[in-house]
Amino acid sequence: MNILADVLSATILFAVPLLLVALGGMFSERSGIINLALEGIMIVGALLGCHVLRWLDPSVQSGAMHGQVAVLIALAVAGVAGILFSLLLAFSAINLKADQTIGGTALNMFAPAFSIVLTWAILGQGQTTMTLPKWVRITQETVGVTPNDGFFQRFIFTSLYLTTFLAIILFAIAVVLLYKTRFGLRLRACGEHPQAADSVGINVYRMRYAGVMISGFLAGVGGMSFVFAVGGFQSDVAGYGFLALAVMIFGNWKPWSILGAAVFFSFFRVIGNYAASIPFLPKFENLQGVSTYLWPMIPYVVTMILLVLTSKKSRAPKAEGIPYDKGQR
Amino acid sequence: MKKSIIGVLSSVIAILIGLLLGMVVLFLVNPDQAWGCFLSMLTAGVSSSAKFAKVLYQAAPLVMTGLAIGFAFKTGLFNIGAPGQYLMGAFAALICAICFQLPWPVCLIAAMLAGAFWGMFPGLFKSLFNVNEVITSIMFNWIGLFIVNLSLMNIPKMLPPYWVNSPVKDRTASLKYANPDAIIPKGGLDKLFDSPYINISILLAIVLAVVVYIILNRTTFGYELKACGNNRESARYAGINAKRNIVLSMVIAGALAGFGGALYYLSGEADYNILKVLQANGFNGIPVALLANSNPIGIIFSALFISYIQIGGESMQPHFATENIDIIISVIIYLAAFALLTKSIIGKFFKTDKSNVNAEPKPSTVNATGKEESK
Questions:
Q1: Of A96, A294, A311, which is closest to B131 when you measure between CB atoms?
Q2: What is the value of pTM for the model shown?
Q3: A272-325, pLDDT tens digit by residue?
């Protein structure tokens, strides 16, 4: 039972970044811009968030600031950094009508390099690993619950961070924003038929900027929550941005399906770490590198199979990837 | 002004802006060392014949991955799967060389087949199920990495302890004692340049670039591929089998990338490191192809340039991280993304073309990722 609680807890922990980043991708693509730069935006968000946490560490240690307030500040900084970085994509894709995939690739290449260079500059030569301070995790002591090792306590507190709550709130906001507001309707219109949207007075460029900036915010926050999930930052997010893109496609560009897809992928990601202690799973005892290479491969293989199986039902926003040109007939 | 000259000029401008920004970053990080290191970065590649030999050696795989990406661009596909195909090629070459003790030409052919096999999947998925090739390629990059690493770790013959008395287990055995026959011949170039790195790989890469150029520009098949890239619907209307061409284009692109992987690892000077990261040579094919506007002959030169500044980046250590080079390269890709705009600005700037403005516009050749399904 303890194992089950741990696995479920970790599943939620790893689902949070996937969910946030995939939602980000959804907003961008629903507005008509393919955001391949999610991976890079995650890195930039995580980078600045980590440096803020490191900078705030002394004041938390001395008790001048509550740990979770510092975490919230770091998340906000990560989100803002994500917005600013995503503006580069928006500028090239919307104003300059450049190829969106290539622009995104450039940002993906820039982010890890920039992260290493900046971390060197701040921490000193050759230093690239940032570790998280202990106080970021919410433990039973933090909230004043009597420590106890029951199933629910374990499920909730094994790996609980502020990001879990934030993800729930942001998810709710995302659903309402996309489906229940005028803004959401307009955003979706720009991704489906921008000419029609323009003809009724919607500023397509502005809506697309909004879509990319929302995705930048969510991907930045998602990058920081990835750092919480793995417990440190080494100038990369292990392909999570791309996995989030797959989650988004598998989730058919719809928030609720994306939530399901994110939990599903995260479960496969987590199960590998615990495979050795789960009784009914195969052990591959005579193979080397099972936990580092075999289990982590499964989400990717499953993604491919699922993308093929669901390809008939898959419906991308019609105008995604096509620069909007007012004069085009 | 001629279109090709404008293309070259816009690439040169992208490079200059990239270098300038790289220099600014150096100055921001460490002003004392910045200028000296920047200069040594710019000159390292020609500072000695051995260094230049290394530029040539590292350019060969870059030519191949650049061709792999450029070739797919021409068919309207963004082959970001080149790192996976490159890796599969390297893997097949090393397995043939070390496990089966085969000579180098066989290893090279095996690498092409393995790369083609890995490139086939994104092509098939795109044409049969209409799954975006970018997502498929990225997924297959990771799947390939995990398969290769898992296999290498579990084949004892591939690791150094089988061949020599060594505890090292995180890399493949060196070809020097595992199978010297599999090392690509030096052809006397090593004496000429006084460097063990150089071999005939750069010449092989150039030959293949010319072959690709001929396929694209002098054959019906190449014409069909380009037609699919420019407008898939009208190509289909003209009786071209677009689905088959997508798969073929990815298979050929994969073969080219796989060949590149073999060129790098069959030199006898590089062992494959079993790490959790994809080889940068695959990704660097993207700037190589973009800088050359996917022209196979141009790719030779842009590969030389990227290789040159990478060697330069190594010379900046330990004062600066080699990743500064990646910043420069990424800025160049970013600028290349809106190459069309830069081109029109340059075109206006040097406007000498007084021809009929109402003439039929020439078909665009820069249709990079095939966004032709607009209507």
A1: A311
A2: 0.87
A3: 777 767 777 776 777 777 777 888 788 788 888 888 888 777 778 888 888 888
Determine whether the interchain pair B28/A110 forms a contact, defined as Cβ–Cβ distance below 8 Å: no
Q: Tell me the pLDDT band of B125, cut-offs 50, 70 and 90.
A: very high
Nearest to B139 among A246, A287, A288 (CB): A246
Concatenating the DSSP letter of every residue in B302-314 gives HHHHHHHHHHHHH
* The predicted structure's pLDDT at residue B83: 94
* Average pLDDT value for residue range A247-270: 89
Mean pLDDT of B128-145: 88
Asked if A94 is an interface residue toward chain B (Cβ–Cβ < 8 A), one would say: no
Q: What does pLDDT average to over chain A?
A: 87
Name every chain A residue with its beta carbon within 8 A of the beta carbon of B343. Answer: none
Place A211 in a pLDDT band, splitting at 50, 70 and 90: very high
Rg from Cα positions in chain A = 20
ipTM of the modeled complex: 0.85
Among chain B residues, CA nearest to A108: B330
Choose between B240 and A172: higher pLDDT: A172
* The residue type at B331: V
* Six token digits for residue A99: 């190829």
- CA pair distance A196, A203, nearest whole angstrom: 11
Within chain B, all domains assigned CATH 1.10.3470 are found at: 49-315
Query: What distance in Å separates the CA atoms of residue B181 and residue B188, rounded to the nearest whole number?
Result: 16
| Domains, chain A | 2-309 (1.10.3470)
The CA distance from B90 to B294, in Å, is: 24
Q: How many residues does chain A have?
A: 329
The domain over range B49-315 is classified in CATH as 1.10.287: no
- Whether residues A110 and B327 touch (CB distance < 8 A) is answered with yes
For residue A264, the 8-state DSSP code is H
The owner of tokens 């650049």 is B66
- Between chain A and chain B, the number of residue pairs with CB atoms below 8 A apart is 149
List b or e across B5-18, with b for residues whose CB sees 16 or more CB atoms inside 10 angstroms.
Answer: ebbbbbbebbbebb
DSSP-H helix ranges across A231-254: 240-250
Q: Is the preceding peptide bond at A323 cis, omega within 30 degrees of 0? A: no
| Whole-angstrom distance, CA of residue B138 vs CA of residue A239 | 9
Specify burial of residue A238 (Cβ count, 10 A radius: 0-12, 13-18, 19+).
middle
Residue of B nearest to A93 (CA): B338
Residue by residue, DSSP assigns A18-54 as HHHHHHHHHHHHHTT---TTHHHHHHHHHHHHHHHHH
Are A117 and B154 in contact (CB < 8 Å)?
A: no
CB-based contact B290 A109, cutoff 8 Å: no
Q: Is the pLDDT of residue B353 over 60?
A: no
Mean pLDDT within B139-168 = 88
Residue A13 in contact with partner chain B when CB distance is under 8 A: no
Cα→Cα distances A271→A3, B168, B365, Å: 10, 30, 47
